Amino acid sequence: MIWIPKLFKKRVVVTIHGLDWQRAKWGGFASKYIKFGEKMAAKFADEIIVLSKGVQKYFKDTYNRETKFIPNGVNKVENREPGIIKEKYELDKENYILFLARIVPEKGLDYLIDAYKKINTDMKLVIAGGASHTNDYYNSIQEKVKNDSRIIMTGFVQGQELEELYSNCYLYVLPSDIEGMPISLLEAMSYGRNCLVSNIPENLDVAENMAFSFEKSNVNDLKEKLEELINEKNRKDEHEIKNYILNKYNWDDVIKQTEILYKKG
Predict the structure, then answer these.
(1) 3-class DSSP string for 190-211
(2) pTM of the model
(3) Are 206 and 176 contacting, i.e. CB atoms less than 8 angstroms apart?
(4) Most confident among 14-23, 27-36, 80-89 (mean pLDDT)
(5) Confidence band (pLDDT; 50, 70, 90) for 35?
(6) Which has more confidence, 35 or 132?
(7) Residue 259, SS3?
(8) Which is higher by pLDDT, 42 or 131?
(9) Of 123, 121, 234, 220, which is closest to residue 175 (Cα–Cα)?
(10) Which of 25, 27, 74, 259 would give a disulfide with 190, using CB separation of 3.0 to 4.6 Å?
């Protein structure tokens, strides 16, 4: 619908969070319609904000369209001791691996579960998040983990429970096949957590050398990296992770850049 305000000579700024037409939840028509919207943005928008360098390159290569890279940001947080999570799930400090994201196919949760089941460890796997237009997939994940008492599914979390899960996990894992800019990874790093991510550009651009990575979709590589990190090899320093992410992805800087763009022209 972007052409409608343009008819009235209104300035339009579009923010592209990711290439949403690639996501598994969309059927053929929906995917094509979303891509049509992308083309309209490239043609008519006065400014386009993108959240990742990969999407910026995509718009340049596909539409020869210049965009402005303004990432998501994080604020400084205070780490919490386990309270709610200890009472509800018997979780203690650094005795669990955390996956926290929407339970959708492109997040790669299947790979993580398969890799984790191959490991002999007492460390629990916590899967936090709700379904997003994919109840069948969510149900399949529940079925997949039901016979492993080490795996805990919390459902959607927020507030203090969310803060406690981030604060106390031994390792945060994001095994995605597709991302825009992963806000959950930013948040995990803002708590100083060691992170293991798939080696897609969107994850690596955020984490750089402050997180560990494995080959996307490769269950065996993920298993090996998990085992190495559980055995405490090459752990990253909590304070270095926090300083890096807060300096590079500070919300105040993001707001300033956005304001400049909105007021332009």
Answers:
(1) HCCCCEEEECCHHHHHHHHHHC
(2) 0.85
(3) no
(4) 80-89
(5) confident
(6) 35
(7) helix
(8) 42
(9) 220
(10) 74
DSSP 13: E
Helical ranges in the chain per DSSP H: 3-7, 28-44, 53-63, 84-89, 109-117, 135-145, 159-168, 183-190, 201-207, 219-230, 238-248, 251-263
Q: How far apart are CA 204 and CA 220, in angstroms?
A: 20
| CA distances, 246 to each of 79, 128, 165, 174, 207 (Å) | 14, 24, 19, 19, 12
Let me know the angle formed at the C-alpha of 145 by 154 and 196, rounded to the nearest 5 degrees. Answer: 70
Give the CA dihedral 255, 258, 263, 265, nearest 10 degrees.
160
- Contact between 249 and 73 under an 8 Å Cβ cutoff? The reply is yes
Separation of alpha carbons 72 and 190, rounded Å = 13
Q: What is the mean pLDDT of residues 194-211?
A: 94
Across the range 198-227, mean pLDDT stands at 95
Phi-psi region of 208 (alpha: psi -120 to 50; beta: other; left: phi over 0): left
pLDDT at 123: 96
